[in-house]
Give the backbone structure.
Amino acid sequence: MNISSNRRTRDKIITCLTYAAMFVVLLLPFALFIGLAFKSELLFRDHSLGQLLFSSSWRPSAGEFGFKPFIVGSLYVTLLAMIISAPICLLSAIHITQYAPARVSKVVTTAIDILAGIPSVVYGVWGMMFVVPIVSRYAAPLFGVQTTGFSILSGGVVLSIMVVPFILNILIEIYRTIPKELTEAALSLGATRWEAVRSILNRKALPGILAAVGFGFARAFGETMAVLMVVGNAIRIPESLFDQGYPLPALIANSYSELASVPEVESALMFAALILFVVVLLFNATLRWFIIKTEKY
Amino acid sequence: MELDAMNEKRTLVKQREKSARTGGKLAEEVFCRTLMNIASILIVGVMGVILVSIFYKGISTFSWNMLAEDMGSGFYLNRGGGIRNAILGSVYLSVSATLLALVIGLACSVCMNVYMVRCPRLLHTARFLLDLIWGVPSIIYGAFGFSLMVFFGLKTSLLAGIITVTLFILPIMIRAIDEVMKTVPHGLSESVLAMGSTRSELSYKVYLRQCFPGIVTAVLLAFGRAIGDAASVLYVTGESARSPRGLMDNVTTLPVAIYNQINSPSAAIQDKAYASAFILTLVILIISLLSRYISKRYQKYRIY
């Protein structure tokens, strides 16, 4: 053996260090969960889980913590965003990968990259400046509603733009990995391009499409600043698109100044973070598992 | 007789083909193609609208004084002042968080790609866990960072912010570097090992050099995230109207400053929010351009 002991010790030290770093990073998800659960334990002394999740009265001063308005608000905004952005992303992904010439698809991918980079606060500012006035001036009178424009609809629209790059990148990746031979075989049998896409590519890509939309949902569910700025933040269960809502992340971000004063409020906010964390984690874990399962076929 | 029948058949087939080409099949094709074009145009158009409106509003309200002055005590009372402290705070915060995350992230991705390849099952579990935390929203890191801060008895400070943001960008950084390191061909590492190098030498003499463009892109990506994120630092950095002088100082970051400004009732301060948003967007755009340029430029030093 020609390796000097110097090199060997250096190798050992570096090996240990990298494993240590890896170990610490892999502890992070557990640390997040335990930290948040530990902090929200205080809330569970007086309240049951069902009461917290399904009661709609939120009066911290009276010790009542019902998270239903926030959970429902989050769901509405996120669902609306997905309804708007999923079809657009799907169509655009097919366009970019199957139809568009290289120059056009480069323009679109650059646009996505830029959209992905814009910080969420800037989306919020843009929403307040552009979307909110349009909703209050043009969209709401169309349905005979009076509103300031700060509404579920504004939140959904801004959010739908924010998740486009995220979903679209996954979809493009999926369509690119489908072997070209499939399309070629279909075309040679006399199918038009769209027929090939519809009945062959889309069937092949279906699990991936579902997963992409799911990941988009999880991403949108936790988005904070932009939604917070345009959604109005009134604590009630929204009944129409033009009602104000109060999503979970907005609740956490908005009440940070009250944190230090009342331990029970702090505990409630940590519980809100825990709900968010668990939802996002469940979504991600299920989808990964789903992808691994379907990849085998 | 037979010839006639054949001719008849031929024309029939031709007619059918024609109807197929001009009828439903084609209409469907054209219809869907139009929809797709609309979708792509919509995406590019929305991007354009966002950039143009932010730039238009921002440039008209921007003044160079904003970059030169601290907020001072009367900023939100409309007594003047700029956003220098917020910009400096953001830069300090995100540069140190990115460096910290780079060190840890490099170690992790090297660990996965050089050492853990020998036990694929462990590697799978590690990647799975990393993928899980990759999607965790930043507000959760904010809440976690806050409880961590309280647990260790820290006060709101730049340091607490750096730790929180590091945790937040670590998964992004590791995943980006790992994606690049995965593409290093096995043959390369095998031949290096066969020459008698140790695994650690393989990692920092070959992997780091081979993946350099990818690492630069990852760093810039993480830096962009760090500088643009408000939700994670909302809890932990406190607020301050002057430039930070040390790690234990309170800082205001640019995104948080924008959020506070736009929620102010005074129109003059809201104008400053537009200008600040313009600055932040510009910084992000420059970072994104830079990362494209650098990754293209250094691509040629790769071996394969």
